[in-house]
């Protein structure tokens, strides 16, 4: 994966890292508020269920007491007993004595006018019959809950089953609905039947519908359900309160994640990673500056000079990215790419002209790279090129300690590669220094060629090279005067704009073909 792709990936991760904690905070705030809201409805439903069980339990207790009466039915004593029960138990509205489901008398009337009761809607597991009916001695057309056992029935107002005050500051409604009949027989506020049908048919325990939250609790014993509901406005207010806690927390995490990822992003966009990306993508190109024999002007080879094309079409100077590669440990990768590019570009040409050569610049680190000799050997065999056709250039820094560098240089020379000292004279050069080096050619730095007229160090460099039988290549020849001076002083080879600038592969081959043409 290239650095460009990594930058895109990390940028995407940055956006996600910023958004996810904030979105998660919003979600958590809403979830917390909703859980609290539903929990309040659940608690209210539980309280309604407890209240309903208490009311029904009181009705059962009344029936148990009445069935213990042994006196004459509907007598004065009997009526008084029924009235005592109805009076003492707050949830019992009326007590009726029945014979074959037909009310005979009640706590309200000595002679009951109520019609015969149909078979019970359901019978509880402990033997109590239950009805939801409008039958009563007062003639009120209102659904009442009736429990019966033996010869007695008790009438209970269903509203007492849901008469529970919410603990919160916002209103909660409740309703009792028959699961079989879908009849709402007690409700603190009207319950929409379409909502109940959806809850019942889909067997939902909770539902959000048109700005309200509904929660259902079933009472299997009596086959009715408790439905509680409330407006979602308190939920929104609670959500906003939760946001005051969760949103700053999420924002803090987002800032920390963004800071970390920005650090990674800046690192990926650093010059080192840009150069590494260019090397991995093989974006760097090699240009070739001809090296000619000064006496004849004929080409003898070329120096390979790496270039880094930029998106705007310009070429980044090697004076910028070569030091960058050295400082960031990328020199061996860069050298490997240059070597491969040289063989790709010039392999066929070198095989066709076995007396020509290409010189490749090495860094000090390349001397101790185990991969370089095997890479050169493999490519030489592939292209059928002689080792003498690939010269290797090292600056004086590469020979800073001859005792350390000498074995590596000797190994390269044994493989057949000529070794050059590049930019000679810019360091701490001396005759003893040169004597310790086992090299073939000395390259005179351009700064000395530019100052031939007023610097007397260049003749000393030339004399040192002659005394050691080293060939010489003068760099940066730009004028005929420089050329004549160098010829007179015995410098054999040169390169510079007087002959040609560094050329692309195609341009160099065309230039070389013209130069080599005997006509």
List the helices and strands and how they pair.
Elements: H1 3-66, H2 76-88, E1 92-99, E2 102-106, E3 122-123, E4 129-133, E5 144-149, E6 152-156, E7 173-178, E8 184-187, H3 193-201, E9 206-209, E10 212-219, E11 224-231, H4 233-268, H5 271-280, E12 285-293, E13 299-309, E14 315-316, H6 318-328, H7 331-352, E15 357-362, H8 364-367, H9 371-383, E16 390-395, H10 402-414, E17 419-424, H11 431-435, E18 441-444, H12 446-450, H13 457-467, E19 471-474, H14 480-488, E20 493-494, H15 505-516
Parallel strand pairs: 13-15, 15-16, 16-17, 17-18, 18-19, 19-20
Antiparallel strand pairs: 1-2, 1-6, 3-4, 4-5, 5-6, 7-8, 7-11, 9-10, 10-11, 12-13, 12-20, 13-14
Pairing-aware structural class of the strands and helices? Answer: alpha/beta
- Categorize the overall geometry: rod-shaped
- As a whole number of angstroms, the C-alpha radius of gyration is 51 Å
Major sheet, described briefly? 8 strands, mixed, barrel
Number of helices: 15
| Low-confidence sequence ranges | none
Tell me what portion of residues adopts beta-strand conformation: 15-25%
Strand order in the sheet with the most strands: 12-13-15-16-17-18-19-20
- Measure the end-to-end span: 52 Å
Number of domains: 2
* Residue share in helix: 40-55%
Mean pLDDT: 84
How many strand units? 20
